[in-house]
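Submission checklist for the structure archive. All mandatory fields must be present; incomplete records are returned to the submitter.

[x] Identifier: F-box/LRR-repeat protein 15-like leucin rich repeat domain-containing protein
[x] Organism: Citrus sinensis
[x] Residue count: 468
[x] Sequence attached
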Amino acid sequence: MEAKRKKNSNPFDFLSEEIIFNILDHLNNDPFARKSFSLTCRNFYSIESRHRKILKPLCAETLSRTSARYPFITQLDLSLCPRANDDALSIVSSSSWKLTLRSINLSRSRLFTKVGLSSLTVNCRFLTEIDLSNGTEMGDAAAAAIAEAKNLERLWLARCKLITDLGIGRIAACCRKLKLLCLKWCIRVTDLGVELVALKCQEIRTLDLSYLPITEKCLPPVVKLQYLEDLVLEGCHGIDDDGLASVEYSCKSLKALNLSKCQNISHVGLSSLIKGADYLQQLILAYSFWVSADLSKCLHNFPMLQSIKFEDCPVARSGIKAIGNWHGSLKELSLSKCSGVTDEELSFVVQSHKELRKLDITCCRKITYASINSITKTCTSLTSLRMECCKLVSWEAFVLIGQQCQYLEELDITENEVNDEGLKSISRCSKLSSLKLGICSNITDEGLKHVGSTCSMLKELDLYRFSS
């Protein structure tokens, strides 16, 4: 009898829960594998329910069942539940999740009110992250409910257009642990609201003030934030060169700055804002700046600068040349839609920045085979190359990409002259996870066969308007 029991016993019963948890950790990115695992036996079904920490339900109506099935959820993503209402938030705040929940995403939900939000923030005492983006009907009463989350560290309020300085002030006064705050398109928040945040929330690391009706008046307390690393001022038209020149302080901890679509700021204002920011690593200057020698020179003395994006900016020859003379070595460069980029300038830049990992030359319509030849010879460690709509580049250039850029993970060659021979060579890039071939009229099934047989890590393949 004992021998029969041993024969019928499940060998997995001898595995400790810790070992099975480690197995499940390796299945986190494959929901189908996790489901199959949990259906193997009752023991696995029970263990999987205790192991799961992240949940993204397809509808709010299932929350009552899922809260019982998965009692230890820490991250709840309701972005696929547009009908999540006060009842749904009541279920969340009254279940076992009230002791485990750390993060919740309500960025696509529209039907809850300040009542449900208050229930959530009062009962889920350990919440550190809330995404309420697109809450266009939320006002200062909802902001008061948010302020009940005393341990909040990350808060997204993008496009919450009814929240005013009063609501933001309430949040700032109560949520002193905030490290990330996004106020993008909160168009009723002015200098006063931003100043209150900067004065009350001294631990802020990331601050997004995109498209706010603010001026330079709110910047002194902002740049004095001791730990501020990432500042986004995209579309802040009320800030200009004269205003930035009046800011006497510098943000020495700043690592990333976004001044895209700031039409009233030139290299003069930029220079004033980043003075003393010796740790600056990323700069986004899209859609507004003139890439001139003066602009390049003001960035000359930032040796830690690794990423710069000049999307849709007019480029002067002297400006590109000056970029090539920088002391530091860029890891990421975007010249997407920049008029004026030619083979000569681009070749000079890549020869000076051989450590580039990401390069975006989308719609640089003047470049040819010569540019790709320079890129593939010097930047052999590229992991991302975007070159949509570079129609003067011949098919032979794509052969070079496959021969030289073996570390590529992302390649966008939409609307180009690549053919099957080019694809055959590109298929040698075995690490590719994203390949975009839309409107490439010269490729056929033969070329795609090479990609399919060798690029085993491919997750995204764009064949828009492809006809074999």
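[x] Structure attached
Curator remark: The chain has 21 helices and 17 strands. The radius of gyration is 26 Å.
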